[in-house]
Amino acid sequence: MSPADADARRRERGVIAQREYRKRHASKVQSLQDENQKLKDIIAEIDRASHGRRALPDDLRAALFKARDLAGISDDGIGEQEEDAHTDEVEQVAAGPLLPEQPAHTPAASTAVVRRATTLEIKFPPDYQPPPDERFSPRLDYGLWFETDRVIRILDPPTDIVPYLGAGMHTLAGSIFWSTMDYTLDLWNSRSAPPAARLLDRMFSQSRHVVDTGYLLSLAQARVDFMRKGFMFRKLSEQFERNAMVDLQRLISEHNKSRGLPSKYWKKPEEVAWNVLSQLTPGQATRFQAVIEGKGAPADEEMMRSMITWLAQNYVCFGDGPRWSNISISVGIGSWVKGVNDADAGVLDASKLSAEMLS
Question: Each residue of 154-193: pLDDT tens digit?
């Protein structure tokens, strides 16, 4: 065989090998495309089945939003009924905490926040007056974005609420954090009433660096929206990326340090929760965890509500979340734990503990 024939054979074998490779590659690509289409079809089917169902857990709702986004599924297939249900949900979120229907004779002394396993009904001061109809009040985040910005949903949460999402929602720290957010938004929606204005002033007037309360409350609203829906919109995400809350927290901490109140003097929800749990017996801790998960006894729920309400009424805004002073935690939580022990011993009724904490 001449060298020319050998070269021709090598070229022919190379052409055949390349042709077979392209066939195999095309077959793999087609298989992947088919598998991807099947996954998209399954996600679309799950999405259609979930529309109009408001009882979806928050983590499942967030997972569905992520799956829809990855699959590129739009809202075009939503029927009129499902669209109306979604609109109702958005209106309720926009207005602030979701209020259950109450009979006309129910006094306004107790207003409910969103009923989640991690959030308890918080009691307001006796002279508190709820807003007349929050559906017609503007959103807290009104003016922070243009309508075109609302098209882009951001699925990454603000870093300061990450500890309180997912499994963190069903912890004492998560219950404290989200109940505090809901309570503050309720107060803001009723800020024209003197009791609400007084409580808001206590929360936000501790530092000269807190100058735009409305802006802070708009970010609180965005956090609550993310917890409920699993996303927020582009404009607010950009604001979080600019670390506005981190900078504000640093300024407030430095201001407090100059007043002789260093960072260790102020406790985050996780530290407050640890303080509470460290003073409870294992049996008591298990009972109150059941309350957080929505399975507790009514008496335990009443006692837990009194503590959560007290914490929501006595925190200080640090920009990136609520804080409580060492002294207030020592006095307030110590009094609550003593009341729990007295209730377990039959010396004190759960309702009286609530009255004592909130008097």
Answer: 677 878 888 999 889 999 999 999 999 999 898 888 888 8
Which residue matches tokens 């979080």? Answer: 240
Among the listed residues 320, 322, 284, 319, the one whose alpha carbon sits nearest the alpha carbon of residue 303:
284
Distance from CA of residue 138 to its chain's centroid? 20
Helix (H, G, I), strand (E, B) or coil at 323: strand
3-state secondary structure of 294: coil
**Residue 342 is which amino acid?**
D
Domain boundaries, given as residue ranges, for the chain: 3-71, 105-357
Contact in structure between 178 and 118 (CB atoms under 8 Å): yes
Distance CA 58, CA 166 (A): 8
Centroid of chain to Cα 215: 18
CB count in 10 Å sphere of residue 236: 22
Q: Is 213 exposed, middle or buried (0-12, 13-18, 19+ CB in 10 A)?
A: middle
Q: Which H helix or E strand runs over 233?
A: strand 232-233
Q: How far apart are CA 140 and CA 219, in angstroms?
A: 8
If phi > 0 it is left, if psi is from -120 to 50 it is alpha, else beta; for residue 260 that is left
H or E element that contains 275: helix 269-279
Q: For residue 1, what is the DSSP state?
A: -
Query: Could you report the per-residue pLDDT of 247-276, keeping only the tens digit for each?
Result: 666 776 777 677 776 667 889 999 999 999
Contacts 24+ apart (CB under 8 A), 297-303: 299/343, 299/350, 300/350, 301/120, 302/350, 302/351, 302/353, 302/354, 303/336, 303/339, 303/340, 303/343, 303/350, 303/353, 303/354
pTM: 0.58
Give the burial string for 127-162 (b: 16+ CB within 10 Å, else e): ebbbbeebeeeebbbeebbeeeeeeeebeebbebbe
Contact 239, 219 (CB under 8 A): yes
